[in-house]
């Protein structure tokens, strides 16, 4: 196929992936909507009634209800399945875009966007299998939709790289940064839900939707572990590989370019987060707030600088 045909196939795949991921997001929103109607104390009262000598027919009905998946559970499964399908389509679009341009497919903001969304969804789906974090599906798919929307708003036709990008360090640098960003996203989403659930636990109002989320201590631990994985990836990708690439491209390792400054700010915030947890024993609310601040600096480093700033990285817009 010609490069033009491959580019068209990539566009169709990305557009199809966006539609499927939107459906996954709606499935998770419906899951949350139905879960809000569930009153946890009523469920417990019903269980006590059944165990206290309810009629046999009623007991068998309750047992059947316990065995059958609830509507929120079914919607969650649908959401995860649609997310998997959308991720496959997005990866197809991402890879075919590379064939169309005859290079690695991350040379501009459009490609950064579809690549970043694909990395985030792949990491999420892997962690669903490992850590059962499907309760983050609504946030992850919603974030992916926003990123894809921003990417499409900066669409440019497939073409060659500018001379500064002709280096294998580009592949290493951007891949590590995207992977780190995917883990940062999971950590930030866990921290956000931790704050909501932890406040409800303190007030004794956990029920309905919040009862579908794990205990706040579990979310706090997931946030810590994912950020602990992301931090060395960011250190290597943004600061080490990025500096080596800058040396080959511009003749210096570090020049306080806006992109470099914000990458360093992100590193400092997450370094403070991990240091506070390891040496000061910071957990819970304070740690979650720092993690969310770190993710905001990451977003500005990844997108904001390119959209609103200037400097040597301006070719990537």
From TrEMBL:
Protein's cellular compartments: Membrane
Annotated source species: Aeromicrobium halocynthiae
Coiled coil: none
Name of the protein described by the UniProt record: C-type cytochrome biogenesis protein CcsB
Positions of the Cytochrome c assembly protein domain: 119-313
Matches recorded under InterPro entries: Cyt_c_assembly, Cyt_c_biogenesis_CcsA, Cyt_c_biogenesis_CcsA/CcmC
Chain segments annotated as transmembrane: 12-30, 78-100, 112-128, 135-156, 168-196, 229-248, 260-276, 288-305
Major subcellular site: membrane
Gene (name only): ccsB
Lineage: Bacteria, Bacillati, Actinomycetota, Actinomycetes, Propionibacteriales
Record flagged with keyword Zinc-finger: no
Keywords: Cytochrome c-type biogenesis, Membrane, Transmembrane, Transmembrane helix
Pfam families reported for this sequence: Cytochrom_C_asm (PF01578)
Membrane topology category: Multi-pass membrane protein
């Amino acid at each position: 196929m010609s490069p033009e045909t491959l580019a068209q196939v990539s566009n169709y795949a990305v557009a199809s992936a966006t539609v499927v991921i939107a459906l996954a997001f709606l499935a998770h929103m419906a899951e949350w909507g139905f879960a809000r109607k569930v009153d946890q104390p009523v469920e417990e009262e019903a269980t006590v009634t059944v165990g206290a000598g309810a009629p046999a027919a009623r007991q068998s009905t309750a047992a059947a209800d316990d065995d059958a998946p609830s509507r929120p559970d079914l919607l969650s499964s649908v959401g995860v399945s649609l997310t998997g399908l959308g991720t496959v389509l997005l990866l197809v679009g991402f890879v075919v875009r590379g064939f169309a341009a005859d290079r690695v497919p991350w040379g501009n903001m459009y490609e950064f966007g579809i690549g970043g969304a694909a990395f985030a969804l792949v990491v999420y789906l892997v962690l669903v299998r490992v850590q059962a974090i499907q309760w983050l599906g609504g946030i992850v798919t919603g974030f992916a939709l926003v990123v894809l929307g921003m990417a499409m708003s900066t669409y440019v036709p497939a073409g060659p790289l500018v001379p500064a990008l002709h280096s294998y360090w580009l592949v290493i640098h951007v891949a590590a940064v995207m992977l780190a960003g995917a883990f940062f996203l999971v950590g930030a989403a866990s921290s956000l839900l931790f704050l909501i659930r932890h406040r409800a636990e303190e007030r004794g109002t956990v029920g309905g939707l919040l009862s579908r989320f794990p205990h706040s201590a579990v979310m706090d631990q997931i946030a810590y572990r994912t950020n602990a994985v992301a931090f060395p990836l960011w250190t290597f990708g943004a600061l080490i590989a990025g500096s080596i690439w800058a040396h080959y491209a511009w003749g210096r390792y570090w020049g306080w370019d806006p992109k470099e400054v914000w990458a360093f700010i992100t590193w400092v915030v997450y370094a403070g987060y991990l240091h506070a947890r390891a040496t000061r024993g910071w957990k819970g609310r304070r740690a979650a707030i720092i993690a969310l601040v770190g993710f905001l600096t990451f977003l500005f480093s990844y997108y904001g600088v390119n959209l609103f700033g200037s400097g040597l990285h301006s070719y990537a817009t």
